[in-house]
Amino acid sequence: MRIGITGASGLIGSALASDLQASGHEVVSFVRRTARSDQEIEWQPGAALAPSALTGLDAIVHLAGAGVGDKRWTDAYKKIIRDSRVDGTRTIAQAMADAVDGPRVLVCGSAIGYYGDTGDTLTDETGPRGRGFLAGVVRDWEAAAAPAVDAGLRVAFARTGLVVSAEGGAWQKLFPIFRAGIGGKLGSGRQYWSAISLHDEVRALRWLLDNDVSGPVNLVGPDPVTNAQVTKVMGEVLGRPTVLPVPGFALKAVLGEFAEDTLASQRIDPGVLRTRGFTWDQPDIRAMIEAARPTRG
User: Fold this and answer.
1) The model's pTM
2) What are phi and psi of 106, to 5 degrees?
3) What's the rounded Cα separation, in Å, for the pair 19 and 24?
4) Helix 169-179 and helix 227-238: axis angle, to 10°?
5) In what side-by-side order are the strands of the sheet with 59-62?
6) What percent of the chain has pLDDT over 90?
7) What is residue 38's three-state secondary structure?
8) Is 99 part of any domain?
9) By the 8 A CB rule, do 80 and 86 touch?
10) Would you say 8 and 64 are in contact if contact means Cβ atoms under 8 Å apart?
11) How far apart are CA 236 and CA 20, in angstroms?
């Protein structure tokens, strides 16, 4: 297959590209500079993309978007978070809908932030949209794919949870803290975290490419656990104490509004993956952390 990837230089995109290429697939990266070869397509998320640019592609995995936890949530950065997802998705979806000989499959990045704070309730893809900034972003993000959906293309929304990796995302920041012996539960620690290893995230994205699945799909492990349980396992795997909890008010002082999502509980069930036969290589939080554990530092 010839597969286009937006966000190909990011944590998930680069891992997916390497995995696809190792399996003999051709990967075409979407770049925001002049394309240097036929393995690249120049694009700008907020500008129209010529449908002819997609000729010959079998599918697109759309992962581009500003990092949610990269900066404090000012009004300006919240706009960047939203626009980078909504505008980019609309651009890709419209070009796919207009392409004569273009890709027929779109795997569109999304997030379990759609569900908001679910408390102790186990929630699958049939669950309602929650409240808050991220829930609204995900709603608009997925809605922006409407041109591709309306054109009859297969569109799957990869609602990804916390990706466990030392190379990026939340866990990249957690590992040094816990290795220094100053890691601890966040707030009460009772909030659920729904995570997936980077390895299984890539496998799940490839599964979405290969299987006739449309609509939202939760990309998380089969066993969500509380932050307190995550903290305990981190300490055990790294051999470090975890006795210093981080109070909620301290998180809010440092992170601002983003702290509300850090302290929120998301107990998410990967219903589609589970019922359609997907299997996890690293299904539990200990396996995820052990696989991602840095070898040094």
Assistant:
1) 0.94
2) -125, 120
3) 9
4) 60
5) 40-42, 26-31, 2-6, 59-62, 105-111, 154-160, 215-219
6) 80
7) coil
8) yes
9) no
10) no
11) 34
What local confidence, expressed as pLDDT, does residue 297 receive? 47
Q: What is the pLDDT of residue 250?
A: 52
Structure tokens, 191? 């909030």
**297: in domain:** no
Q: E-strand spans in 72-231?
A: 105-111, 154-160, 162-164, 192-193, 195-197, 215-219, 225-226
Alpha carbon distance 90, 141 (integer Å)? 8
3-state secondary structure of 109: strand
Residues of the chain with pLDDT under 50: 254, 297
Q: What total of structural domains would you count in the chain?
A: 1
Q: Is-contact 54 4, C-beta < 8 A?
A: yes
Distances from the Cα of 240 to the Cαs of 134, 167, 172, 187, in angstroms? 33, 20, 17, 19
Q: What is the CATH number of the domain that holds 271?
A: 3.40.50.720
Backbone angles phi, psi at 174, to 5 degrees: -75, -40
Distances (CA, A) of 167 to 15, 35, 197, 291: 10, 26, 12, 12
Tokens of 282: 């690293």
Question: How crowded is the C-beta side of 89, counted as CA atoms within 13 Å?
Answer: 31
The domain of 183 spans: 2-292
Q: Is 101 exposed, middle or buried (0-12, 13-18, 19+ CB in 10 A)?
A: exposed
